[in-house]
Amino acid sequence: MPQGFLAFVLHAHLPFVRHPEHEEFLEEDWFYQAITETYIPLIHMFEGLMRDQVPFRLTMSLTPTLLSMMEDPLLQERYIRHLESSLELAEKEVNRTQGDDQFHPLALYYQKRFREAHTTFCDRYQRNLISAFRKVMEAGHLEIVTCGATHGFLPLMETQPNAIRAQIEVAARTHERLLGRRPRGIWLPECGYTPGIENFLKDAGISFFFLDSHGVLNATPRPKFGHYAPVVCPNNVAVFARDPETSKQVWSANEGYPGDVDYRDFYRDVGFDLDYDYVKPHIASTGDRKMTGFKYFRITGEGDHKEPYKPEWAMEKAAEHAGNFMFNREKQIEHLHGSMGREPLVLSMYDAELFGHWWDEGPKWLDFVIRKSAYDQNVFELTTPPEYLERFPNCQQTIPSASSWGYKGHNEYWLNDKTHWIYPHLLAAAEMMHKLAKSFPVAEGVTLRALNQAARELLLAQSSDWAFIIKADTMVEYAEKRTKTHLDRFLNLYHGIVNNDFEEDELQKIETLDNLFPDIDYRVYL
After folding, report:
1. What is the full DSSP assignment across 365-392?
2. Which of 361, 385, 408 represents a domain boundary (last residue)?
3. Residue at 436 is within a domain
4. Which of 67, 158, 245, 438 has its CA at a distance of 20 to 30 angstroms from the CA of residue 290?
5. pLDDT tens digits for 249-289?
6. Which of 351, 431, 511, 521 is the catalytic position?
7. CB 164 within 8 A of CB 154
8. Is residue 78 a part of any domain in this protein?
9. Which CATH number characterizes residue 465's domain?
10. Is 29 a catalytic residue?
11. Is 192 exposed, middle or buried (0-12, 13-18, 19+ CB in 10 A)?
């Protein structure tokens, strides 16, 4: 019997970014980059572990917006176009760096990466990456959980409970449609919680969720085992808390592994470094430079001077850091077991896109951790939340504290002086959607389509990503436009439905633009 358990939880999420009205759209690159740099490398990692019969368990959220993009034929076709452009650039780079002992091997390295991505996406999975994750789930290694339908920040919907219910129920139905079963767990968007949300989860058949550590540590009554064991809400929905120690080791900008000098530098990219005319065919159609994925330098140090990237050095560091992580978990769990008198659970929660996209070596590091944990120690085992609950079904009952995993641990990153204008509109629209559902308990034909599309537009306007981007001061214009556009479409549909006065051609246009959740039922707002 192990002295304790370690559970990795990866949160794979992107906002719904799909623009058929444009031949190319820069923000769609978020999706293409994540496929190449995170999702396919994780699939390869899972396949390698299964091939080598390594015992492992891991939990991963695949959010409904991400699943919707993965199944979309237009985005699948555009991703292939993106890969083909990357392969063309790889060929050019292999030729350009011929004879350069430092950069030619890197050009070949990236050429191989893009070829493997093309083979995996097109040939092995016929564009259906959902099936790849589902295969690992059905083999018993991966617990796939859901999220809010569009990653809406639930605490700021508290005055409109039907909006919370819709976010959760639409998510659960989408998960079931694409993954074959209702989700057992949920990663609450931004880990945002306020007491009472667990009731909506139970109604949707969801039995556990995750919070940042202070959400459980500040529970009423206080948890006997801190954040090293799940607790249950009064309705018996279980709560798992993030472990801050493992988060710091990986997330910390100053102390985390990804900042090591031998790891690849994310920000140095040939899309910005090389001659404009040379890279122009592979950057934005607007002519703006952008990331291409060809990054030839390592972090090196804090200054501007960067040394060439050495993948073999980086792999050595990834193995070293994996060993360090495992050693620390052994000591942590030994200590906790001695003081708790039971087997603790250390929950390591991360954004999935950290692994590969931001931290190129992340998937290899995770692979090393899993393999070392299986064969090089006997203090802990990898597990998933449902497995842990099966072993230890008797949990302390408590009411978690309102919390999030954002800045200062509450709502400030999403509700602030830059974003406060959003929420009166979202709450008013949610109330209007509830009134529509009550006024039209039965609908058919064009009215039914309009009601369902109004529900889609409200959900899209609620995405927490837009407020996050505005606060972060990155793609502010785009985030503001998305918020306003979806609210405008919702209002136009609302007035058209109420007045029985809308153009079917206009409805069809909006349905084509925002086509996620094809089986949505507006009555979820009743």
Report:
1. HHHHHHHHHHHS--SEEE--HHHHHHH-
2. 408
3. yes
4. 67
5. 998 877 899 999 999 999 999 999 999 999 999 988 888 99
6. 351
7. yes
8. no
9. 1.20.1430.10
10. no
11. buried
